[in-house]
Specification:
Layout: E1 2-6, E2 9-13, H1 21-28, E3 47-50, E4 53-56, E5 69-71, H2 84-91, H3 101-114, H4 120-127, H5 137-162
Parallel strand pairs: 1-5
Antiparallel strand pairs: 1-2, 3-4, 3-5
Helix pairs in contact: 2-5
Keywords: 2Fe-2S, Iron, Iron-sulfur, Metal-binding, Oxidoreductase
Organism: Bradyrhizobium macuxiense
InterPro entries: 2Fe-2S-bd (IPR002888), 2Fe-2S-bd_dom_sf (IPR036884), 2Fe-2S_ferredoxin-like_sf (IPR036010), 2Fe-2S_ferredoxin-type (IPR001041), 2Fe2S_fd_BS (IPR006058), Beta-grasp_dom_sf (IPR012675), Diverse_Oxidoreductases (IPR051452)
Amino acid sequence: MMTLKVNGGDHRVDADPDTPLLYVLRDDLGLNAAKFGCGLGQCGACTVMVDGKAVLSCVTPLLLLEGKQVTTLEGLGTVTAPAPIQRAFMEEQAAQCGYCIAGMMMRAQAMLLRNPNPTDAQIRAELEPHLCRCGTHMRILRAVHRAARLMDTADATSERSER
């Protein structure tokens, strides 16, 4: 039995320490945004953030997560109050089938936390591990740029309100 910190809450999990995080998120915690794609860490559909860094949850065993914060797409925002990255992907209609999008959003979110104004080349390089067969790549680029602007606006607004 271990305690897993997910989306700001503590969850007691009774699973083998070698169990991939993806299985616990989906099967035990009911968080279904991260998808099983290849199971080999080659498609990116299972991407979540661990302590703010993009991680492939299908190949990350629980034993590596003791004391770390896991964030899934469900932890970023809600249907009524989506996070900037979620809002941007919706506004740009970046999802076609939607299977890869949660993972892409999580990797883009992690990138924007460390690089709030990425170039197209930086976004492409960051999202390179993700496979998308639907062909919405240009919309995805626009969505990441839009999210950066939305996050910048949100940061500026919160700074003004703190004064």
